[in-house]
UniProtKB/TrEMBL annotation:
Pfam families: Fn3-like, Glyco_hydro_3, Glyco_hydro_3_C, PA14. The keyword Hydrolase applies. This is Glycosyl hydrolase. GO terms for molecular function: hydrolase activity, hydrolyzing O-glycosyl compounds. Keywords: Hydrolase. GO terms for biological process: carbohydrate metabolic process. Residues 387-562 form the PA14 domain. Belongs to the glycosyl hydrolase 3 family. It comes from the Bacteria.
Length: 827
């Protein structure tokens, strides 16, 4: 399969672009550069251009509707994909996503997210790959190749420096030139060179004083000029704030619409002589080229013809494979009989499965990356399917979700839309009690102009007796009744941050409680009059009814779990973060597991020496108890098939394949960067190029688990290491008793800096490869060290500088576990 259509296609594409271009007047051209709604561009039939549709991204393709009524395959979190250290797996994930996009009529996927794990507090840490630019670039390259091989575009995002969420719309990240080039721009550069993405998304934040949608130097200078990016530059949603400066800096598309800084405002600016039309023309040609590539431009076929599309793949199977290939076995201590506790084997006897997230799967992180799968396999379902109902005893133990969540189990709800006079305009299903209608995605018969009140109405049949808590999410006026009785009415206004997406991602708020009896249905009604926000340039309605089951005494829950653990042969405790911890629009404030989960783990591990802790989190959490549990398995947010993949790995049908793509701190205080809150609007990246494992190494602090760490179910001996030029070959042998896969990592340690030369990290990841072998078998992997590994960015010269000298190549199992070393003279 070739990655890119050849010159012949590009020529035909160029002709089709010119033909369409000639049919457009200034108004039409300006319209093409602005969203017509939340997700799409207008069609321009006079020029033979169809409407281009975009959608998030990155773990699935949500489509143009934000509802469980329009489901998608949900893959594991990007951290999990990166933990596979397998660009080929990322490519296959991309092939599946392209298939999903085609099914949903989506032309461009708003992914991958390739910002870096600068701090574990970053709210979207789970949605990005790694702390390491090289690993991020490699995984992102595989992903983009996969999606685009399916004829669907990508937007590599968020260019650049969107590594945290606090004040994300306005923060000015101060990053020196060398650090930008060597660290934060590096994944974008690699992906542009290796995968030729059809799009890029510019971030909300500023870098060194200029907001990214107006950053001429980085967009037109570096991305397009130096790297030759020939795709479309779309703003992050609502990131474009000016007409002339954004366009002339190199922004092509202002999203979403219909009110944007481009469109009619752009045509007017050209007519007023404020913007030279040549910039409009260049942007239009780029958008037309994208339209051609995705097959919605007359006169040219898509870049990937239907006959060249990859074969259909089974989404559930890919999701399950990515999940287990991303699971990282952090610890696997010998049990009483001297063998490691994992794998449990096909007949492990009785298992006490403990933790709320074992029953209510936490498969995805929150925010714009959310998709709605048709089903979610929880650990409880996965283990019961594998071992039988009787073998698995479930106890909640501790509930991190002592927070309001979607109104799902026991709720039967629909929405009724009324006009200002109270006449019914239309109705719609509202799975989970969530109403999120943006742009033209409204129930039949309803328009934003006529819609006044929405009522979520229906019944709730409680699964448990006791005090139930109800709440709301969204901005506007509410009235909540349960069983015909008004429990609360009031208005929710915007918070101080005034994030335009607050109604989407803001916290749910508790409003009232009601004592209800199990099995007895009660009527529920939540009426809502939306707050009209004039500062948000798109029309939408977003609110929800949220609910929390009666809460049991926390000590009692732990005691019940301990009892179950004591009686079972093995205890499996699933601990998790929640959407209030890991999502978009805010950063984390702590790495502690929410609720009483730490106490739960300690108590269970004390009761059963064969305790396996499953960590269901998209980014690092503190695990002070890690030495007390026999095994610790990190499953990230494992996607829709997480429970089945967990059974595969616990029982030993498959190895856990992951290696940490980010250093796992023992305590937040040890992390290299612990502040993501700007001071006076500025965030200084003072650590420079010392990011991730390089920073840990320099500080001399020992993390809980180093970058690259992860165990399989077999052992490996690293036997040989040789280099011919920059081609490095590692020979290794599987010394265990079962077949396995090893992630061979190559770190390159530079010679000490000569006087006047910039200091470099003590080592950098310069390559990796996956080796597979059966028990007792030897194998070899070969890795080509890239030019960049021997270069630094020379700020004064404005270019890369080659750094000759005597380097050390380290073949390693993690950043902290080198097995063989070799001197390499670079001239
Ligand atoms: C996010 C983007 C996303 C866009 C559309 C923004 O808030 O930062 O990553 O693609 O919304 O949902």
């Amino acid at each position: 399969m070739t990655d890119h259509p050849g010159k012949e296609y590009e020529d035909r594409l160029g002709q089709a672009v010119e033909a369409a271009f000639a049919a457009l007047d200034l108004d039409a051209k300006a319209r093409l550069l602005a969203g017509q709604d939340m997700w799409s561009l207008p069609a321009l039939p006079e020029a033979g251009v169809g409407s281009l549709v975009m959608s998030d991204g990155p773990v699935g393709v949500r489509g143009v509707r934000w509802t469980a009524a329009d489901p998608s395959v949900a893959l594991p979190s990007p951290t999990a994909l990166a933990a596979s250290w397998d660009p080929e797996l990322a490519r296959r994930a991309g092939v599946l996503l392209a298939q999903e996009a085609r099914r949903k009529g989506v032309h461009v996927l708003l992914a991958p997210t390739v910002n870096l794990h600068r701090s574990p507090l970053g709210g979207r840490h789970f949605e990005t790959y790694s702390e390491d630019p090289y690993l991020t670039g490699a995984i992102g390259t595989g992903y983009v190749r996969g999606v685009q091989s399916g004829g669907v575009g990508t937007t590599v995002k968020h260019f650049a420096g969107n590594d945290a969420e606090t004040e994300r719309f306005t923060v000015d990240n101060r990053i020196d030139a060398r650090t930008l080039r060597e660290v934060y721009l590096a994944p974008f550069e690699t992906i542009t060179a290796e995968a030729r993405p059809w799009g890029v998304m510019t971030a909300y934040n500023s870098v060194n004083g200029t907001t990214m949608t107006e950053h001429h130097e980085l967009v037109t200078g570096v991305l397009r000029g130096e790297w030759g990016f020939d795709g479309v530059n779309v703003s992050d949603w609502l990131a474009a704030r000016s007409t002339g400066p954004a366009l002339t800096a190199g922004l092509d598309l202002a999203m979403p619409g219909p009110q944007t800084v481009f469109g009619p405002a752009l045509a007017a600016a050209v007519r007023a002589g404020e913007v030279d039309e040549k910039y409009v023309d260049a942007a239009v040609r780029r958008v037309l080229r994208l339209a051609g590539r995705v097959g919605i431009l007359d006169g040219v076929g898509p870049a990937v013809e239907p006959g060249q599309l990859p074969a259909e793949v089974d989404g559930a199977a890919v999701a399950r494979e990515v999940a287990r290939r991303g699971f990282v076995l952090l610890r696997n201590a010998p049990a009483a009989d001297g063998t490691p506790v994992l794998p449990l084997g096909p007949e492990p006897g009785t298992v006490a499965l403990i933790g709320a997230a074992a029953r209510e799967a936490r498969a995805l992180g929150g925010g714009s990356a959310t998709v709605f799968p048709t089903h979610l396999t929880s650990p409880l379902e996965g283990l019961r399917a594998a071992l039988g109902e009787e073998a698995v005893t479930f106890r909640v133990g501790a509930d991190p979700q002592a927070e309001l969540g979607p109104a799902t189990q026991g709720f039967d709800l629909h929405a009724v839309c009324r006009d200002a006079e109270g006449a019914v305009l239309g109705t719609a299903p509202v799975p989970g009690g969530l109403v999120r209608w943006v742009g033209s995605d409204l129930p039949e018969g309803v328009t934003h102009d006529t819609l006044h009140t929405i009522e979520i109405a229906g019944t709730y049949t409680p699964p448990e007796s006791g005090r139930h808590t109800f709440g709301t999410r969204g901005l506007g006026a509410f009235r909540l009744t349960v069983g015909g009785r008004e429990l609360w009415s009031g208005t929710q206004g915007p918070g101080p941050a005034r994030d335009p997406f607050e109604a989407f991602f803001g916290d749910p708020t508790e409003r009232a409680t009601a004592d209800l009896a199990a099995g007895t249905p009660v009527d529920i009604s939540l009426t809502y009059v939306p707050a009209r926000r004039t500062d948000v340039p798109l029309e939408g309605v977003s609110f929800s009814l949220v609910h929390l089951l009666p809460q049991r005494d926390a000590d009692e829950l732990i005691a019940e779990a301990v009892e179950a653990a004591r009686q079972a042969e093995t205890a499996v405790v699933v601990v998790a973060t929640t959407e209030a911890v890991e999502s978009e629009g805010f950063d984390r404030t702590s790495l502690a597991l929410p609720g009483r989960q730490d106490d739960l783990v300690r108590a269970v591990a004390a009761a059963n020496p064969r305790t396996v802790v499953v960590v269901n989190a998209g980014s690092p959490v503190e695990m002070a108890w890690r030495g007390e549990a026999a095994a610790v398995l990190l499953t990230w947010f494992p996607g829709q098939e997480g429970g089945s993949a967990l059974a595969d790995v616990l029982l030993g049908d498959e190895e856990p394949g992951g290696r940490l793509p980010t250093t796992w701190p023992a305590r937040l205080a040890d992390a290299p960067v612990t502040v993501t809150t700007p001071t006076d609007g500025r965030l200084d990246y003072t650590e420079g190029v010392f990011v991730g494992h390089a920073a840990w190494e320099r500080a001399g602090t020992t993390p809980a688990y180093p970058f690259g760490h992860g165990l399989g179910y077999t052992d490996w001996a690293y036997e040989t290491l040789r280099a011919e030029g920059r081609t490095v070959t590692v020979g290794l042998r599987n010394t265990g008793t079962r077949p396995g896969r090893e992630t061979v990592q190559l770190y390159l340690a530079p010679p000490p800096a000569a006087p006047g030369e910039p200091e470099r990290p003590a080592q950098r990841l310069a390559g990796f490869a996956l080796a597979e072998a059966g028990p007792g078998e030897s194998t070899e992997v070969t890795v080509e060290l890239p030019d960049r590994a021997f270069q630094t960015w020379d700020e004064a010269a404005g270019g890369w500088s080659h750094r000759p000298g005597r380097y050390e190549v380290r073949a390693a199992r993690s950043a902290a576990d080198p097995r063989l070393t070799l001197a390499l003279q670079e001239d």
